[in-house]
User: Which sequence fits this backbone?
């Protein structure tokens, strides 16, 4: 649920960027990654407050990374759908070069400028921000780490 919420909050600024189709609004897409990061931070805070489920900081990190990966997959799928919706000839690359207003000449050949502007934050930026919160969150929000139990990924192995 938190991965879906993070993806939806990422996609709102990406939708605005594709809707306006203005090169000067490229920074708006990165605000979606900031919103993505805050949702992951809230999930990490929720995990730190749960009593028996995630006693280990490592298990909290693993659970948060799973949420980050789910959010990235959903954000990429939503971004792909928005590109089909707003970029004419998205898959063929036959869209007009003037699709992105105020863009430098040659930047948007075959939609590559727009695709990089939208998909790089959806994958790399969201992973960086989410992974940062996934690692930082359990150690910041967990009240007592002195009695941390080791992470058990499979029962029977230690």
Assistant:
């Amino acid at each position: 649920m938190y991965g879906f919420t993070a993806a939806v909050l990422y996609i709102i600024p990406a939708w605005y960027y594709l809707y306006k189709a203005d090169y000067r609004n490229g920074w708006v897409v990165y605000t979606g990654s900031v919103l993505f990061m805050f949702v992951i931070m809230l999930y990490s805070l929720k995990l730190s407050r749960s009593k028996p489920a995630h006693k280990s900081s490592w298990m909290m990190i693993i659970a948060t990374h799973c949420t980050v990966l789910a959010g990235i997959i959903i954000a990429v799928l939503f971004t792909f759908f928005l590109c089909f919706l707003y970029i004419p000839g998205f898959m063929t690359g036959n869209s007009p070069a003037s699709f992105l207003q105020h863009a430098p000449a040659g930047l948007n050949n075959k939609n590559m400028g727009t695709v990089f502007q939208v998909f790089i934050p959806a994958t790399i930026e969201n992973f960086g921000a989410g992974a940062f919160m996934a690692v930082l969150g359990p150690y910041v929000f967990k009240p007592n780490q002195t009695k941390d139990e080791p992470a058990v990924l499979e029962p029977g192995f230690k």
